[in-house]
Design a protein that fits this description.
- The structure is a single chain.
- The protein has 3 helices and no strands.
- Helix 1 runs antiparallel to helix 2.
- It is mostly helical and 90 residues long.
- The longest helix has 26 residues.
């Protein structure tokens, strides 16, 4: 069996769980940057990278639900919007 043969619901559950773990890893890195946690910034960064990879694998597994070409199109629009906002052009 391949990842893409798993039921869609199973894959959606997995990306939800991995996304929550990514959020926690980002917060842990912020705490590490401020010295508010016993782990080092390097350890927290490694954990963040691991969680980004996990989410990326899940995104690939959901290609039939959310094709990457569609995702990339939305990413492009959102990145452009960020740039406009950061430059105060709204």
């Amino acid at each position: 069996m391949t990842i893409r043969e798993l039921p869609v619901e199973t894959r959606l559950i997995q990306i939800a769980e991995e996304s929550a773990e990514l959020s926690q890893a980002a917060l842990k890195l912020i705490r590490a940057m401020h010295g508010d946690t016993p782990i080092t910034q390097d350890e927290a960064t490694a954990h963040l990278i691991e969680e980004i990879a996990d989410v990326s694998v899940c995104m690939t597994a959901l290609h039939d639900v959310a094709p990457m070409c569609d995702v990339c199109e939305v990413i492009s629009k959102k990145a452009e919007r960020w740039e406009v906002r950061l430059n105060g052009e709204e």
